Amino acid sequence: MCHAYFIHFERSVLRRSAFKLLEIDDKHKILKPGCSVIDCGAAPGAWSQVAVQRVNSAGANTEFPKGFVVGVDLLRIAPLDGALFLSNCDVTDPATQEKLQNLLPGSQADVILSDMAPNASGFREMDHERLVAMCLSVADLAERVLRPGGSLICKYWDGGQAHQVQSRLACAFREVKIVKPKASRKESAELFYLARLFRK
Ligand SMILES: C[S@@+](CC[C@H](N)C(=O)[O-])C[C@H]1O[C@@H](n2cnc3c(N)ncnc32)[C@H](O)[C@@H]1O
């Protein structure tokens, strides 16, 4: 009952990009109250809004445990109740990854989200390769901070180098799926890795 209310509220106020995460999470139940979450490429903040509501990091529901959300982006991210943000920071930089680790309760995360994307150059293969490199950095971050049993949702653009990300995730997680939410345009190369049960 309470959960249904949450969903109704969030759908009425969120930006369109959030619907991809809502759809994935409705189906796979990754974000639970009390979870610690890192949102990579968080600006302008729609995915973080979803995460804040689902892990209860603003403490809106006193019956559920309070979670934690930290978002990071190259751009400025507007403040959001229930989230900490590292604006103007590059997720691929080890110094940013160290900052994230220091901010996390117990230095560990339950979930890493990445909707990161480079600015499109117009050259599909080049953009694909740049996003693959970013996904591999997110995998580095997972190795550093993800709790055993933790999950990762990571956007990529389909192409010839995606296998590099897939094999890296397959080594680190017990379960790796490729998902394409309905909210993602059919003609777009955008896909998401959903990796679960991180093995430390
Ligand atoms: C599609 S947008 C994310 C939208 C966000 N999930 C939302 O729902 O509001 C992609 C973001 O990735 C960010 N980004 C790209 N490269 C990055 C990097 N190396 N480190 C941090 N953020 C990055 C961009 O600045 C951009 O804001």
Automatic annotation (TrEMBL):
| Main subcellular location of this protein, as a coarse class | mitochondrion
Has the keyword rRNA processing been applied to this entry? yes
Q: Which InterPro entries does the record match to this protein?
A: RNA_methyltr_RlmE (IPR050082), RNA_MeTrfase_FtsJ_dom (IPR002877), rRNA-MeTfrase_E (IPR015507), SAM-dependent_MTases_sf (IPR029063)
Q: Name one GO cellular component term.
A: mitochondrial matrix
Keyword Transport on entry: no
Q: Could you name the active-site residues?
A: K155 (proton acceptor)
According to its UniProt entry, the protein's GO biological process terms are: mitochondrial large ribosomal subunit assembly
- Tell me its family: Belongs to the class I-like SAM-binding methyltransferase superfamily. RNA methyltransferase RlmE family.
Q: What is the protein's name according to its record?
A: rRNA methyltransferase 2, mitochondrial
> Taxonomic lineage per UniProt?
Eukaryota, Metazoa, Chordata, Craniata, Vertebrata
